[in-house]
Amino acid sequence: MNLPVAQRLAPIQEYYFSRKLREIEALNRAGARVINLGIGSPDLPPHPSVIEALTAAARQPDAHAYQSYQGVPALRQAMSQWYARSYGVALDADTEVLPLLGSKEGIVHLCMTFLQPGDEALIPNPGYPTYRAAVHLSGATPVEYDLTAETNWLPDLSALARRDLSRVKLMWLNYPHMPTGAPADAAALAELVDFARRHDILLVHDNPYSFILNEHPQSLLAVPGARDVALELNSLSKSHNLAGWRVGLLAGRADLLQQVLRFKSNLDSGMFRPVQLAAAAALQLGPEWYAQLNATYRARREQVFGLLDALGCRYEPGQVGLFVWARVPPTYADGYALSDEVLAAARVFITPGGIFGSNGNGFVRVSLCQPEEVLREALARVVARTADRCEASAAARAAAQETVAS
């Protein structure tokens, strides 16, 4: 049977980590025991009370039926209270909060709801690859805006304003930024809101990293006037160690959320009720939860800094989030070259920055989602690799000198 693939998939490639994990799995089957410092999947468990809430809810006889497309009231209320407590943002739990099966789902929902062929959407370079894929799937055209170290990974809005923005309908934002770990202060967020208002663009802020190694969690919706031009995605994956549970949310204007629900309600039949109730319990955890989480990540980050020092990479120690972003030494063509060499020689995988866009080519990204003892082993392997290279270079020099002498 010759079944052609839909044209909408023509610009879409399989997700990089999907391919890379297969390669790593093959190496492991061959006995390599690769240390994976690539993907940002938290290895720590949820709080015990969250597991208990899940278990208790699963025992209820009415727990296993189809659920509301908008989530149970207890979850929406917990999400609303979390925003008020954490960000100082008041949300109507009935109309301004929409639970999602993870925020990645929301990225696609938003593009399919508000974009169509002929439209353009601004996406960050470097940035999360799913933004580009979702825009393509909608039939719209992704248009990159540059983020660079020279601008502290913030957009140059004056340069953007000089472009033809007449077809731009949506702009993707993500601060604290992934992959670079750059934060955005309130002034920068206010400038983005003003830019969107002047150019009639919907801002969508993807905000899953605000609690990780970040002293001042922020929501774009806290900026005066943002409610008119912005929506915000958030997630419990990183902040509460619930990555595999797939719990996210979309917050903002009720009329815009209602349009997203029109699309979403045709794709799923709601989230498992025990997961929703357990997520509500997670959102009620106090500041001591985040303090303990960040103490662990802070210690791990010091280990990653040591690994990057051993590789000769340069990095900003003040970056936040679940990764460390670092510039590769000038002896390497790009992050792919360094990543490939470290995987081959030390059996340690670090992410090449180029998968996030051309402005990431000279960088690598290292995840904090491994225990300290694993990170220490990764460092030992990298140091051993460096020693082996030095020995090989010394042997080559000695051989060359013998050749000249003879």
Automatic annotation (TrEMBL):
Record's keyword annotation contains Transferase: yes
Keyword RNA-binding: no
Record-listed E.C. numbers: 2.6.1.-
Domain of life: Bacteria
Keywords: Aminotransferase, Transferase
Molecular function as annotated in GO: pyridoxal phosphate binding; transaminase activity
Coiled-coil stretches: none
Cofactor(s) the record lists: pyridoxal 5'-phosphate
Pfam families cross-referenced by the UniProt entry: Aminotran_1_2
Family designation: Belongs to the class-I pyridoxal-phosphate-dependent aminotransferase family.
The protein, known as: Aminotransferase
Source organism (scientific name): Hymenobacter gummosus
